[in-house]
Design goal:
By secondary structure, this protein is α+β, with helices and mostly antiparallel strands. It contains eleven helices and nine strands.
Length: about 280
Amino acid sequence: MKYLAKALRSRYWTPGFDYKKFIVHVLSRIGVRDGDIVVLSEKAISVAEGNIVDESKIKPGILARLIARIWMRYIWGYILGILCRLSWRTIYNLRKYPVELGARHKQLVIEKVGPLASLCFGSEGGIDVTNLPYSYASLPLKDPVKTAEEIRDAIRKYLGKDLTVVIIDSDRCYSWRSFCISPRKTFVKGIKSGGIFAYVLGNALGLRSSPTPVAFSGPIMSLEELLKISRIAEKMRGFGAGRDVWEMARRFGTTIDGVTWSMLMSIPHYPIVLIRRAVD
């Protein structure tokens, strides 16, 4: 199956932004067809819904501090980072992992997802700080299936078109033949949740990785196709201000907690990707 894809440029979705209305508006301008697939960023939706936490107000406990100071700097910086084939730039950053800021982040992960998730480098149960300002972190959607269904219903109501809506997260999903595993929880049948073990094994074994499909609403779609369109969408969308907080801070010439709303709003974002199955 071949696909046509188009990333739709948007302003940064700030808390309170009416993203459903915006999605319908943008799609109405480009002419969608029945059967088209709309792939959306879970993080963008979470931020628009105000599903974010200011980590500067979090008081880290002893476990969170130990994870930030010892586990992240030494276990990830000298052992797991190499085993997982992380770039040397990332390994260098891990060896200088910010203890105080990192401990607050790990405390949030412990409270919202659990201690095992806090041992991950990234892929921490869907909690993310990349492409967010200051010390904010986005949380995973509470009911992504319902969100996908509501967006699909809005498109059908106002545009009269029956589309498939897919919500994805940049956290990696690893697959080998019919086996598929992700570090985070997902509502897609066939993808198992494996926490840190999924992340380490997936990278150490060099399994094929994709963004994680979190939920979708529409006609039945095979897991293979769902993973494929997730990869296409990620490639079209890019990484916004950066792949991680270090890259984001370097882009704006500030500290990792010094990025502002206005900085993020100064660059193009592509939270929506429209994908169409090509007909030979």
